[in-house]
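Let us work through a complete example step by step.
Step 1: write down the sequence.
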Amino acid sequence: MFKDKTIVYTSGTFDMFHYNHLRMINYARSLADILIVGVSTDELVSSYKAKPIIPFTERLQIIEALKTPDIVIPQHTLDHSEIVKKLNIDAFVVGDDWYGKYDYLKDLGVQVFYFPYGTGVSSSNLKKTIHDSYEANLKSQRQSKASVKKNKGDGKKGIDYRRDEGDRQSGCRMFGKSWLQPDFDLCFG
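Step 2: predict the structure and record it as tokens.
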């Protein structure tokens, strides 16, 4: 406590910032007179999981742009003992995926709150969804076969090259030995 003000610290990677990040920060704000948010550096995150998609400086700026934090700082370590002492932290809020990890702060007089993320959005789930979608799209593209149809009705010799709706719209045609669009750009199929 500082001059009868409750100081709350929350921290995270905040990669691919999403709704559950915002909920946790807002919850921490509801407990605080002064809210300090720590953003994990790329080096720290890389020490225990894959490097974040969004670079540290951009993640820091995203959190700074929120109206709820009073102070935003870099987080260089998962051990919060020093920061608790230096900043007179009264409470610490972290996602429940870290349940039990920060109980040692209770010995320093800090209340620890494990915020329930639930089964909603997480950066890991977002990354997996994007990856799975990309893989499915790639597989679909590999499996699709080009259909070659004789060109009809335009009086030119050639064939239409049609793989999907996009190719039908672009109107790629073979003239001589090259695939050409109507504006005569080369088509690569």
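Step 3: interpret the result. The first strand starts at residue 7 and ends at 12.
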